[in-house]
Specification:
Layout lengths: L4 H19 L5 H27 L5 H24 L8 H23 L8 H19 L2 E2 L2 E2 H32 L4 H4 L6
Antiparallel strand pairs: 1-2
Length: 196
């Protein structure tokens, strides 16, 4: 069901991306707090749509596609805008490039795996990576120092950790897909699915 409650929440989360894009064209503390609030709502909604889908047995194919796409869209929109903002300091461009490249590569590998009839299970590393990215972006959006806490510095520290974990999980995913493709149990040779 395309317009189930979980899917509607996911659509709403996707809609926060252009709002973030607009807010991050401004550098004032008020705009930063507004962007941080929007991102926080989007992050929390990710938990609720999954909870509703599991609790009421309303998991759909569309939802399985949209949910991870919404997460990546919101996080990468925020990071790209934070990278290009005129205020200083700002997020280094190389970090954003690495994260975007990782997501493109993994998405391509997932398409290859699907074409071969393989089931690629979600890895714990990927979940931790997304959680750390969300925490990092929250601090980076606030940006300024409040209560003697430098939110930008804290956000950058977590983002470095998230970037390292992103690369690690991407390499791990790449190796597992390659090994599965060489396995005699993939659909190309035996017509069976390989769960990895």
């Amino acid at each position: 069901m395309a317009f189930s409650a979980p899917n509607l929440i996911t659509f709403a989360r996707i809609a926060t991306a252009p709002i973030l894009l607009w807010l991050l064209t401004y550098t004032s503390p008020a705009a930063s707090w507004a962007a941080a609030a929007i991102f926080f709502v989007a992050t929390v909604s990710d938990y609720f749509d999954g909870y509703l889908a599991r609790s009421y047995d309303s998991v759909t194919t569309l939802g399985k596609f949209l949910d991870p796409m919404a997460d990546k869209l919101v996080v990468l929109t925020a990071l790209i805008m934070l990278c290009g903002m005129s205020r200083t300091p700002h997020v280094p461009g190389w970090i954003v490039a690495v994260l975007v490249a990782r997501e493109i590569a993994v998405t391509g590998l997932r398409a290859v795996a699907a074409a071969e009839g393989m089931i690629v299970a979600a890895e714990e590393l990927g979940k931790y990576k997304m959680a750390l990215q969300a925490i990092a972006v929250q601090g980076l959006l606030i940006h300024y120092t409040y209560f003697h806490i430098d939110f930008f510095a804290g956000g950058m520290f977590v983002l470095y950790v998230a970037t390292a974990l992103s690369v690690w999980s991407g390499v791990d995913y790449f190796v597992k897909v390659l090994l599965a493709l060489k396995s005699p149990f993939t659909s190309a040779s035996g017509g069976q699915r390989a769960a990895i």
